[in-house]
């Protein structure tokens, strides 16, 4: 059973579907949609509205593993935090993409972009930016800048975006997000926060075929898992974990 538990402190797989048109907002329609999801995942019992334009259904966050789903006027978002396997998270996302077209009158033509994000969090109390620079290195042209006397790294979040087709509709962004700011560096008071690594696969534009949503999800999952297995684990996740363990 494929899992990423051993690679970081927390991991998650999130789905985001952005639509070109506004989704239905009728009370009965929305209730039926969320009830259908809850029937398959009874633990999702926390239901509330946030800022009037966002509706949330989620499991209790007191558990280390939980699912969440939000609906906005032009966006459906969902995530599974610390799933027991990658397939378990994808099963949750497949259900949403199977149900949404019927309950929310959603068409593959109405897809502006669909994202599948693989997130990896490392808890670290210290200068996140310096950690990332030490663990992953910096581009050759910047290496000597780290040798400047008394210089400290206060911002370093490397990222790269790759396209996998001629039209650049299928893309994958690999990025690192730090949470250390100038105040932390100045005072040398660092809270215990997460350094995050994101592998975000995105498909732009309307989809083709009756099963366009599910086929695209499978394509994004296949792309993301290949990038993670062939590059991210060895070149990013393992070096970060090792650098944190040695500090």
Topology:
Layout: E1 10-19, H1 27-40, E2 46-50, E3 54-58, E4 66-72, E5 75-81, H2 86-103, E6 111-124, H3 128-136, E7 159-163, E8 170-177, H4 182-187, E9 193-204, H5 212-245
Antiparallel strand pairs: 1-5, 1-6, 2-3, 3-4, 4-5, 6-9, 7-8, 8-9
Tags for this model:
single chain, alpha+beta, 9-stranded antiparallel beta sheet, 9 strands
Quick summary of this structure?
This protein has five helices and nine strands, in the order E-H-E-E-E-E-H-E-H-E-E-H-E-H. It is α+β, with helices and mostly antiparallel strands.
Helix-strand string: EHEEEEHEHEEHEH
In percent, how helical is the residue content?
25-40%
- Main beta-sheet strand count, sense and barrel state: 9 strands, antiparallel
Annotation field: number of helices = 5
Q: Stretches where pLDDT falls below 50 for ≥5 residues?
A: none
User: pLDDT average, as an integer?
Assistant: 95
Whole-Å distance between the termini? 32 Å
Q: Tally of extended strands?
A: 9
Provide the β-strand percentage band. Answer: 25-35%
Q: What structural class results from the helix and strand content?
A: alpha+beta
Largest sheet strand order: 2-3-4-5-1-6-9-8-7
> What is the rounded Rg?
20 Å
* CA-based shape: globular
